[in-house]
Amino acid sequence: MFSSRISLRRSCQSCAKHKRRCDQRLPQCTRCATRGTPCEYINTPWAVEKRSNRPPASVKATSSMNLPLHLEIIKTFDGTIIRFLVDSMRTFPVTFAQQMKTLFIHPDLYRSSPHLAPIQEIHTVCKSYQSNVYSPRLFGILRQKAVQIHRCATRASSFEELLFCVQALILAHCILAFDEHENSQYSEATSTMLTNLALKLWHQAPIQLPHAMSARRAWLFAESVRRTIIIAYMLCSVYSFGKRSFSVRTPFVDALPFDVRTSLWDEPTDSGWEEKARHAPVAMVSLREYSDMLESGRVHGISFFGSLILAACKGLPAEKVAFPPVQGYRDISL
């Protein structure tokens, strides 16, 4: 039977096993370093490079900072890739208006939630926007709604409410950042606000999900958190590309956990989900590792989500991937 205990735990496995407090330092927490025991994490971001007990020669060792996750690396992409990313971001509000679902928002999570007001409100605006008729009044309402949802996010009473607020804000700013009439309404302050909320999501994510959740719903919840953080950072990066033709690569995002079983997102039933999951054991990698897999052609059947990640992380279109022999594929099509 597939376990319904899906954890968003950030403690290392050793501290969790022995029920000890973990300070979550990388590459090893203090307890594991003192005891000389292996220190492995499940959901905490991986170090970008291979773990080592010694810091790089060019980086001064410090016990209070995780330096690799705070670095930013300038990246520039071809104009075709930037246009693909911008156009893709613009599809999110329209897709949500039509299906009540996107790559990072799943309807099965909010239909029975008492905190779905931000989702409902942004859906109404997205439905008006999909008509493709420019309306200053509509964009005025959207800007006002974005301010209200941000205010709601800052005083969210639960993690679920915070998650829905961030998702609604992403949809709002996919319109404000990339519509040809309104791109001036998005600013660097907006990027900072979104990345700060994404970090808040990560730090406040529950360490254990309720047993009452089905395995599928628990996975969708954890996956929604991961995808929302990834898309929030991607939105900020794509805006930077469109505005200045360059962006930065943040190792924190590269190191985020990523579940390669992306097709489970679209499985509509609990029984079908459990059947697929039973034949595809949990396969968590970092987002950086997944983009490396995509680039090297080791993912069979690159989805739209995969194409976005490949473009945003590597600056490559999916059609340019050179696939190795069949035995080299990582088949996630299930």
Automatic annotation (TrEMBL):
Residues 11-41 form the Zn(2)-C6 fungal-type domain. GO terms for molecular function: DNA binding; DNA-binding transcription factor activity, RNA polymerase II-specific; zinc ion binding. It comes from the Eukaryota. The keyword Transcription regulation applies. The keyword Transferase does not apply. Pfam families: Zn_clus (PF00172). InterPro entries: Zn2-C6_fun-type_DNA-bd_sf, Zn2Cys6_DnaBD. Keywords: DNA-binding, Metal-binding, Nucleus, Transcription, Transcription regulation, Zinc. PANTHER family: TRANSCRIPTION FACTOR WITH C2H2 AND ZN(2)-CYS(6) DNA BINDING DOMAIN (EUROFUNG)-RELATED-RELATED. This is Zn(2)-C6 fungal-type domain-containing protein. It comes from Aspergillus chevalieri (Eurotium chevalieri). The lineage of its organism: Eukaryota, Fungi, Dikarya, Ascomycota, Pezizomycotina.
